[in-house]
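To whoever is covering the structure queue this week,

Two jobs came back overnight. Logging them here so there's a record in the thread.

Job A:
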Amino acid sequence: MTPRDAADAGSSRWSDLDRPPLDVLALRRALLRRDGLWTGVEVVQSTGSTNSDLVAAASAGQAGEGAILVAEEQTAGRGRLDRRWSAPPRSGLFFSVLLAPSGVPVSRWGWLPLLTGVAVATGLSRVAGVDTALKWPNDLLVTVEGEERKAGGILAERAGQDAVVVGVGINVSLRADELPVPQAGSLALAGARNTDRDPLLRGVLRSLEQWYGRWREAGGDPAASGLQETYAAGCATLGRTVRAELPGDRSIVGEAVAVDGDGRLVIATKEGVQEPVGAGDIVHLRPA
């Protein structure tokens, strides 16, 4: 084998047989229904960011509600605070969906990333048998060797005036020597009974369709839809002492006691003040 042949073999989509490519035709058959939310599924081999691509497509009028864009590899995936997200090809699920929640007040759209977190955790529990907790506002946590680790994240971005693109990244088969940081985790390392990405993606998207439909039917009301209660039940941040690092180099320390009707984390400080936090970085300081 020549050096060129070896290089080609190393980059082949079949070079890692433990990580087969997604079956886009099977995904379309399973997800696209005449009366369903999902209207299209596209799978690309590699892209910088599925969120950026879908926002651009929506802005150009080339994508409507229910569009799903999946990448086998993301080279410039982004999380909150513009953090970068990268992983080996086909080692995870990297996808974005376009939602246009007409009939829901824009003031309630901030619940979309929390709703997605509930949907992802529910779908993964059903298909992978992994207990996934939620760190406010948008991190997915799994337990690896008794330690809580981040295995995924969610990022929501506006796409014009009428739509939101929600992106999800989940580490599925990442091995210990492939972790970007020691504090990261994956479904495989958490003991998932299933790491086949096709059923995992179908399960997550079906769960998202169900939760989104319930939330829209309730006019975006997080209490009436059951979203607020379900999020709180699965939120690993509640009941813990946390530090909230806020815009303007300000921080507060206290116990996370609730998620309010606007999706904000309510922190009770030692001064007896309950302060709602709508944006910022949350650090867990001790176990619940």
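Job B:
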Amino acid sequence: MLKEKILNKEKGLVLYGLTPPKAEFEETKLREISERWTGRINDIKADGLVLYEVQDESERNDSERTFEFSGTLSPEIYYKKYLNVATPSIFYRVASGYGEDEFRAALKAQSSNLNVLVGATSSTQKVRLNLARAYEIASEFKELAVGGVCIAERHGKKGDEPQRMREKIAAGAKFFISQAIFDVQLARKFLEDCAAAKISEPIFLTFSTAGNAKTLEFIKWLGVSVPSSVEERLNLSSDYLASSCEIIKEIWCELKKFGDENGLNLSINIESVMAKRAEIEASLELTKSIRELV
């Protein structure tokens, strides 16, 4: 099972990340969407899913949001009620959205034994439950393995991401999933400092497919660094989507080689941040083909 592989610090695992459908959809539409995703998930045979619990990130970004925020089904409801898959799933948990009793009840009732705990989007955000307390509550559930988020961009600004990771490890984190990566130099510097800090826990590097400039703009709005050289390469390409997949493969291969040479435990998480069919299909094909590169 995925939990055991992570706890045993196996390398080269392949995850696929997706966001559940909008909660406002009618039941018929939710069933149609879920049936399509069930077939897709079963086809790619990933080691695990990552189901995101979304939050409005407007507070950490003053610029206008590229796409309107809309609430989604919880990972638990989507996985248990709608998806018919055997693939184990990692649930994201946005701690700030829960009260203590509510968070404890959610962990007790869930069908996943892997969670990623996520904190507030900004220091000014009002929270019901802070991240440190969420880790304490999670530690009450012995079958649960928790992970944390790691962000190369935050490390580029503050230089303390490995220290944050160390604190999360002390609190119980067994693995990490990164924010999406398009900036290989920024990610490499982050990994250099992780190696210097002797972080041996698995780190899943996340990559998002981009089918056009608007998708890339949204990825940038989410806080992902995209170098001008990458953006120019995409804009000049005759096939934007295929080029984004090639860039992902190139970045992954470079970072994996560095990780292998420096004692890091790297795996990969492929996601599609948009509901566009072409971008979804590209991300699925990328997930299947990436196995040759892990």
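Note for Job B: The chain is about 45% helix and 15% strand.

Please reply-all if you pick these up so we don't duplicate work.
Q.
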